[in-house]
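Reviewers of the previous submission asked for a worked example of the structure-prediction workflow described in the proposal, so we include one complete record here. The input consisted solely of the amino acid sequence. No template or homolog information was supplied to the procedure at any stage.
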Amino acid sequence: MSEHKKYGYKYQVIELDFAAINTTEEPQSLSTDKDYDDVVGIAVSFTDETQAPNTVFAKPFRIGSDDLFPDNYELKMLASSLAVGPPEKFAKANEHFTPVPAKGSTIVLAVKDGGNAFAAYKIRLVLLLRKEIKE
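From that input alone, the workflow returned the following structure tokens.
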């Protein structure tokens, strides 16, 4: 009889504030939660989607030594509408990228505003983290 692994999950939220158009937000000292094993999903939400068209990663989005998305990748490709339930909102590992180690891995993130904003807005990048639960 095969043994089924049990997992615990956590959402890790990275919030970026855009106060002006054509700016780049590049938070320093970001890392994944050291108590979790893998990043298995990524989602993006905007406080106002109409203000964020053409908003892109300004350099490759990296966790640890793994590049997950290239520079100039539009963040709206990782977003979904309110009609989509939470589990389906995530670009999931194995469908869109290979799971990457969490365990306190450094996150390299730079996001450039697309130049269309008419007021300040926020972008939330949400990582879905997983750890195996040992019994």
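The mean pLDDT is 87. We consider this example representative of the routine output the project will generate in years two and three.
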